[in-house]
Design goal:
Chain lengths: ~325, ~290
């Protein structure tokens, strides 16, 4: 995958005249295949990236795939201790890791929570982003100030914000519980109760994700011609009808992109879970990525094979999702 | 997706009026609530960093304002070392990443060539890669090459994220530069490389700056690889180092908050300056494919 697959791409990408329109027309007419003379500079320009990707992504990916078919762990991989080099002694075990993962309850359980986590985060983030973008799109005093403030969570490095939230969530001395006790209520175990922790991590991720959604959707809103609204108003469309029939369709292309990106990011959102709860309490908030990380770096002996297996499964799931998503879009008439 | 959403006095008829005063008050109220939620955690850390460490958990906004957290942080902890490590790793990643991927962004934006579609898909899919797919093999490779715990190892690792991302994003920016400019270059007898170097690159500077900034921030905030690959106080980056202040045995919120502020301020300032172009580049690349 990471390594370019020439046969397939050559078949698909028809050679064409240099410097044509920006759109890679999906139904482009097939020109006769050009020789090296026509394309050598394009290839020379992309060569650095192709080589780098092949070496630092392609090769590890292939190795990862291979590791997932072995029983590699900390004790049997090749390693250097002092001056001694110990060769690898792990063995090929076929698809055993995959059968174990897919038939055992741990993978499926974690997958279930990961899906819940992704769907709730993306839905909430999108809904809040849409509302805020619509509000900010109005002529309202102090718009740019609000916009600046609302964007702040995006501007702070994620790991710093996550620690800030951990500080607020702290069960005994955190701000949130101190406010609650000031109001005469019991302390809430924000990160220490399995169910509560789930809400807490989702809240933090939504907090982190809304600004991006908002800015992207605001950009989309501003590209909708104002005349459409005027015309609709003249035709007597009410606010809801205008939103339903102009705003939402106008936001389609932006929304599809940001929802796809946001889904992928959330599915793989390592830092929020890792830094807030480390997947705990128990394994309650463990998503696939953090669990795979745990296999290879936090348990003893480190289980590289299982970790790779989970990694490959995550990648496969995401690719299936992206392909499916694209197909749905295409059916609805989006060229992408 | 036009980039301009920052007009302080928008006289244009595009935007719907807020309507009657009551509705307007409602809008302001919801915006204020949202802004408070957005700002509060950040503000709270800032306020905490200015209190003496022993009062870190009090709910007062101000209490004996002091900079002792900052002085303690800088003198008693390896914070500056971590900061330096992060700066080095993120800086190198950015420079190398942008340098490698600039021509690719251009080629993919302008030319049709066999393999382009495959390359585009590769760039897209590699951005989907979960850290879990690559972290183990890269860890093992780095371990056999003796690059674990070395900044260089982390830079190489970060390039797996930065290169596809930069190429993708720069394509988006190059797409916004009219191709008449390229054509004028060809008319004047420039080769594609000459056109790129002399005409397009200077025009694309803002886009390159934003791409560079974004990949810097990504490397600056990366947690998983940094936590796994860099151990020992001397070699940690900020993302790993901060975890030292807060672990299962307790939390030192005083130095923690001061460190957070010092990490966040420069990033936030540049971010607010650059963000308008960010979404443009990212979604332009994605939408136009």
């Amino acid at each position: 995958m990471a390594v370019d697959t020439p046969s397939q791409s050559v078949a698909k990408a028809a050679g064409d005249v240099v410097a044509r329109g920006p759109r890679r027309g999906t139904g482009s007419r097939r020109a006769p295949k050009r020789s090296l003379a026509t394309h050598w500079y394009a290839w020379a320009m992309v060569a650095p990236v192709v080589i780098v990707i092949a070496v630092i992504i392609g090769y590890p990916l292939v190795r990862g795939l291979y590791l997932s078919l072995t029983d590699a762990n900390e004790r049997n991989v090749a390693r250097t201790i002092g001056v001694n080099e110990i060769p690898a002694t792990y063995e090929f075990v076929g698809l055993d890791n995959y059968t174990d993962a897919l038939t055992g309850s741990q993978f499926l359980g974690t997958l279930g929570w990961t899906v819940v986590w992704t769907v709730s985060c993306v839905t909430l983030t999108f809904a809040l982003g849409l509302v805020l973008a619509n509000v900010l799109n109005r002529r309202i005093a102090g718009r740019s100030v609000y916009r600046m403030l609302l964007i702040l969570p995006w501007a702070i490095p994620g790991f710093v914000s996550v620690f800030a939230w951990r500080f607020l969530y702290d069960e005994r001395r955190g701000m949130l519980n101190q406010i609650l006790s000031g109001l005469g209520m019991d302390a809430v175990p924000w990160l220490n109760d399995p169910l509560m922790a789930k809400f807490s991590v989702i809240a933090v991720n939504v907090w982190l994700g809304v600004p991006f959604m908002m800015v992207a959707l605001l950009g989309g809103l501003q590209s909708i011609p104002g005349e459409l609204y005027e015309a609709a108003e003249m035709d007597g469309a009410n606010a809801w009808q205008r939103f339903r029939n102009i705003t939402l369709p106008g936001l389609r292309s932006v929304s599809t992109t940001v929802v796809l990106l946001s889904t992928i990011w959330t599915f793989n959102m390592f830092p929020v879970i890792f830094l807030l709860t480390r997947g705990g309490p128990g394994e309650a908030t463990q998503i696939l990525v953090t669990q795979a990380y745990k296999f290879s770096f936090e348990i003893s002996p480190r289980d590289f094979a299982q970790s790779s297996t989970w990694g490959v499964l995550i990648l496969v799931l995401l690719m299936i999702f992206a392909a499916f998503y694209q197909r749905v879009l295409r059916k609805q008439g989006d060229v992408w | 997706m036009s980039g301009d959403h920052h007009d302080p006095h928008p006289p244009d008829p595009q935007r719907p009026d807020p309507g009657p005063p009551l509705a307007s008050a409602g809008l302001h109220l919801s915006l204020i609530v949202a802004s408070v939620i957005a700002v509060f955690p950040v503000l709270w850390v800032l306020l905490t960093s200015l209190k003496p460490a022993k009062y870190a958990s009090t709910t007062d906004f101000f209490k004996e304002t002091t900079f002792e957290n900052y002085t303690n942080l800088l003198s008693d902890t390896p914070f500056l070392t971590w900061f330096g490590n992060s700066l080095l790793v993120a800086g190198l990643t950015t420079v190398v990443g942008v340098f490698i991927s600039a021509t690719t962004g251009y080629a993919v934006s302008r030319f049709r060539f066999p393999g382009k579609r495959g390359l585009m898909w590769t760039l897209l899919i590699t951005q989907m890669f979960p850290v879990a797919v690559l972290i183990v093999p890269i860890y093992n490779i780095m371990s056999t090459m003796g690059l674990l715990n070395e900044p260089l190892g982390l830079v190489i690792t970060y390039l797996t994220i930065a290169v596809p991302f930069c190429a993708w994003m720069m394509k988006g920016f190059f797409d916004t530069i009219p191709r008449e400019i390229d054509e004028s270059g060809y008319v004047d007898g420039l080769t594609p490389f000459g056109t790129f170097w002399r005409l397009i690159l200077p025009l694309a500077k803002p886009g390159i700056a934003v791409t560079a900034f974004y990949s810097f921030i990504t490397a600056w905030g990366e947690v998983a690889y940094a936590s796994a690959f860099m151990v020992g106080d001397e070699n940690m980056t900020l993302a790993g180092g901060l975890q030292k202040f807060v672990n299962q045995y307790g939390a030192q919120w005083g130095p923690m908050s001061a460190a957070s502020v010092l990490i966040a301020i420069p990033a936030a300032l540049v971010f607010l300056f650059a963000q308008r172009h960010l979404v443009t580049g990212m979604s332009a690349g994605a939408v136009k494919g």
